[in-house]
User: Fold this.
Amino acid sequence: MSALPKRYFTPEEYVLLENQAAYKSQYVAGEIYAMAGAEPEHTKIVSNIDFALKTAFGDRPCESYPLDQRVKIEKAELYTYPDVVAFCGEGQYDRSSRPATLLNPQVIFEVLSPSTEAFDRGDKMLRYRTLPSLTEYVLVAVEAMRVEHFTRQADGLWTMAEHRRPDDRLPLRSPDLELPIVQIYRLVTFPA
Assistant:
């Protein structure tokens, strides 16, 4: 017995389906994946990151969006909802669909969960890195205090720094600021 062939969707078909759906999904190279809800500690970390960014931005022309801001990476055939996106300056949007889709994030945060960690570290990271506006990609662990900060260098290569201590600070250059690691993990309980 042979397996049924997979159904591949065009980006346009995905957008039409997403506009009518009662749930969020992401599009990866012709396939559509429904997005599951998050655990409380995951949601706390997302909220903490967004709050820390908004506080640090002050009156600067910078924005951050948690969870519900769809991002399109056309070259990499990806539509997805990062945990947090941030940018300074003018946001560029594809407004041909609802919700409007952000095209130029500068920083993307993904909070790792067991079901998405391999994708967030692998294929998704590679797809994100094709986005010309993206200068930083940040992976945040839930089970322990660990933040991995990937930064695009002037020559196009990416470097990684890891932050594990409460007194560490995450230096972001796209919006020039530092986030205290302890603030990212505020009120988060780690598993025993």
User: Anything to note?
Assistant: Helices lie at 11-20, 40-57, 117-121, 123-128, 181-184. The radius of gyration is 17 Å.
